C-alpha cells in the first residue's frame, strides 16, 4: 500500500527459506501446523511503537495462520493498537482462521477482521491492495492521506 501512503509495508520472512513449489510449501505448512516450535524470523527493522494501527494479512492454512505470523505476533507488543486482520486465501476455514489469530491480540485496543480476499494467480497484488483499501474506506479507517 505504498502509493499515497501514511503507512509502511513489511513482509514477515523466516530464516529458513521455503521452496516456491506447491508441494514443498504444502509439506512445510502442514508440518509447521502440528509443531509447537516457531520458526526463526529474518531480522527486521520495524518499530511498532511508531504506529497506532496495524494491518496484518496472511494465508489461511486449514483454519490456521502461518507459524511465522505467530512468531511475529509473539515478538511484538500490540498494546493500545488497532489491529486489522485479513486472510489472502479464501478456502474453507477463512473465518475460523481470522478468529484463531484474533485471540493473540488481547492487549490491543481493538481487533477487526477486514475480511477474506482471494489471491489466485490471475489476480495481481495491486488488485488485492485496491480491494483492501476499499474495505478500509467502508470501515472508515483513516490510514491514507
TrEMBL record:
Q: Where is the Flavodoxin-like domain?
A: 36-108
The Gene Ontology terms for molecular function here are: FMN binding; oxidoreductase activity, acting on NAD(P)H
Which Pfam families is this protein grouped with? Answer: Flavodoxin_4
Protein name per its UniProtKB record: Flavodoxin-like domain-containing protein
Q: Which species does the entry assign this protein to? A: Inconstantimicrobium porci
**Taxon lineage:** Bacteria, Bacillati, Bacillota, Clostridia, Eubacteriales
